[in-house]
Amino acid sequence: MCSVILFDGECNFCNQSIQFIIQRDSVGYFQYASLQGVIGKKLLKQYNIDQTIDSIVLIDNGSSYVKSDAILNICKKLSGPWRIITIFLLIPKPIRNFFYEKFAGNRYKLFGKQTKCLLPPPKIRKRFLD
Question: Which of 68, 115, 119, 120: disulfide with 96, CB 3.0–4.6 Å?
Answer without folding.
Answer: 68
